[in-house]
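Deliverable D2.4 — example input (structure tokens):
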């Protein structure tokens, strides 16, 4: 555990608040989106001008609250000292609660790609969403103190959903609200049959990496699909198999796609798996290492619209 031997709060706070001081107007203001004020009113973050008129002042107060970090009482004192606003502590809390949709919109605008990429695949009926999670650290922490879960709209080049949890929060598709027709592209953490079923229930399609043990597949007759045996059979570098995935009495039609990795990729993949297993104090079975040279995906997209090559 990290033990601080001297007090640093008095030094950190002035340095952080300096970012929302005199340099706010010339340096930060021009970087904000042009529709900031319009969206603040549309998303009900700044409906009344009582005590705090322009949305830029509200945004400045929000940054001071986060960067300080300040309590709402100290935020009110800071705003009075800066000549920003003279409103009560309860009024600041109310404005903070109402600003959540506005801040999500602003985050999406600030990190949006300048030009939306064009995917080399069929155009889905809904949005094409890339789902992942990243760790964040805090001063004096362990390096993975918070987890940021996000879904990015690939075609629009901007964020669609963002969730922040503690470090124990795993990658779960259940934490998002999906729209009908959306295509979700996720990594190994979402390759569980439970999470595939959640997306299907919301009329969304998935393309996820599939570890063999987390999402067992079966044929129409109910026989289990032995993926390792299927990959060891003779065939081309790209393969496809169609079957079913069952969860809580419901089954979903899925397709399994596999592509042979480049010759240099399997040794690196096996090395990463061995190193990860060694840190966790466990061993990897030989059949698992044998399929490390294959990229395996499962999808619920219709075969008539999305070919195996498009999915891969």
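Example output (designed residues):
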């Amino acid at each position: 555990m990290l033990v601080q031997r001297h007090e640093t709060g008095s030094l950190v706070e002035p340095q952080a608040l300096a970012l929302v001081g005199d340099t706010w107007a010339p340096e930060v203001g021009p970087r904000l989106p042009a529709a900031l004020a319009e969206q603040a009113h549309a998303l009900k973050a700044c409906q009344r001008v009582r005590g705090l008129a322009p949305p830029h002042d509200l945004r400045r107060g929000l940054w001071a609250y986060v960067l300080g970090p300040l309590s709402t009482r100290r935020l009110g004192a800071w705003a009075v000292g800066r000549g920003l606003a003279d409103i009560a502590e309860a009024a600041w809390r109310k404005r903070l609660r109402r600003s959540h949709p506005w801040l999500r919109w602003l985050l999406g605008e600030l990190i949006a790609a300048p030009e939306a990429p064009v995917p080399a695949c069929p155009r889905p009926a809904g949005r094409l969403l890339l789902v992942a999670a990243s760790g964040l650290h805090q001063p004096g922490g362990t390096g993975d103190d918070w987890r940021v879960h996000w879904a990015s709209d690939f075609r629009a080049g901007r964020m669609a959903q963002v969730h922040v949890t503690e470090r124990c929060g795993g990658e779960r598709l259940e934490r998002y609200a999906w729209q009908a027709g959306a295509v979700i592209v996720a990594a190994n953490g979402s390759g569980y049959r439970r999470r595939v079923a959640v997306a299907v229930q919301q009329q969304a399609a998935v393309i996820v990496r599939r570890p063999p043990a987390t999402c067992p597949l079966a044929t129409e007759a109910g026989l289990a699909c032995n993926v390792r045996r299927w990959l060891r059979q003779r065939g081309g570098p790209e393969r496809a198999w169609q079957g079913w995935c069952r969860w809580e009495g419901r089954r979903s039609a899925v397709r399994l796609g596999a592509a042979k990795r480049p010759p240099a990729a399997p040794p690196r993949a096996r090395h990463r798996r061995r190193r990860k297993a060694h840190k966790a104090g466990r061993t990897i079975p030989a059949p698992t290492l044998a399929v490390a040279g294959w990229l395996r995906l499962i999808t619920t997209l219709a075969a008539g619209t999305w070919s195996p090559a498009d999915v891969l």
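The longest helix spans residues 265-280.
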